[in-house]
Amino acid sequence: MTNYPIFKGYLGLTETSKSGFFTYGERILYHFQCAGSYSDGANFAAIHPRWSQWTLNISGTLDFAYVHETRLSREIGGKGVVDIDFISLSTLPPNEFALVPYEINPAIEQNPYFTALTDQERANCHSLFTSATLAGQDSIANVTATLPHASICTDLINAWRKGQETYYLSGYKFIWTEYAIEDPEASKGGYTEFPFGPFDDVIPSNLSWLRQADDCVWSGGLWKITRTWVGAPDGFWDPKLYPSMPPS
């Protein structure tokens, strides 16, 4: 579709006195209104669908804009009024940032209180817990008494018996959203990387960060790119599974 510049008198329509005002917010909006016969107004509105791109000549300055909304109304005497709201592409919405906590909730045997247990002791605890309903508490106490870390093993088994399979551990997600006119280059994530971007000084430094896949959305003539990093305690992300550089 060929787009034509807007000027007074096009298709028999005349720009009204209510035309030509701006709204300044996250985006710059320009309102245009013209009037004429209803049939001319209908033809004019039809070539200005939502998100069609136009070059506006405003006070001798060219500006690229997208149609946000077009409205056609009928008045007495067969008159038609067309209202068009344009979104200027000369400005972009501000960046958005969020540092959001999330629950990791690891298995309870990974709690620092149980780090003294060996792999064999944990295996013994699992076996004892599995047989607990048959053997009873006295039998469990007799067996754990022979283990090097008897009291810790007993505490772990008792925690499982109470239904405490995980413990609370919090991490963070750092989310950075920015807008662009040009096509973005998205990352598929899957590697460790310290978050970057404005406001990165608020990011906790004592965490290990995993880059997730970027989310890209096109709307209203703009790309919205959201980058997300997931932070967890140091050592949480296995370097054999998550390299420190983007995979090729």
List the helices and strands and how they pair.
Elements: E1 14-15, E2 21-24, E3 28-37, H1 38-46, E4 53-58, E5 61-75, E6 79-88, E7 96-103, H2 119-130, H3 132-144, H4 150-161, E8 170-180, E9 191-192, E10 207-211, E11 215-219, E12 222-233
Antiparallel strand pairs: 1-3, 2-3, 3-6, 4-5, 5-6, 7-8, 8-12, 9-10, 10-12, 11-12
Helix pairs in contact: 2-3, 2-4
- Helical percentage: 10-25%
Number of domains: 3
**Major sheet summary line:** 6 strands, antiparallel
Question: DSSP helix count?
Answer: 4
The helix-strand sequence is EEEHEEEEHHHEEEEE
Radius of gyration: 32 Å
The dominant shape is elongated
Quick description:
This protein is an alpha+beta fold and 248 residues long. The protein folds into three domains: 10-88, no CATH class; 96-104 and 169-233, no CATH class; 108-161. It is built from four helices and twelve strands, in the order E-E-E-H-E-E-E-E-H-H-H-E-E-E-E-E.
Would you kindly provide a written description of the structure presented here, covering whatever features stand out?
- The protein is α+β, with helices and mostly antiparallel strands and 248 residues long.
- It folds into three domains: 10-88, no CATH class; 96-104 and 169-233, no CATH class; 108-161.
- It is built from four helices and twelve strands.
- Strands 1, 2, 3, 4, 5 and 6 form a six-stranded antiparallel sheet that branches. Strands 7, 8, 9, 10, 11 and 12 form a six-stranded antiparallel sheet that branches.
- α2 (119-130) packs antiparallel against α3.
- The protein is elongated, with a radius of gyration of 32 Å.
- It starts with 13 loop residues before the first strand and ends in a 15-residue tail after the last strand.
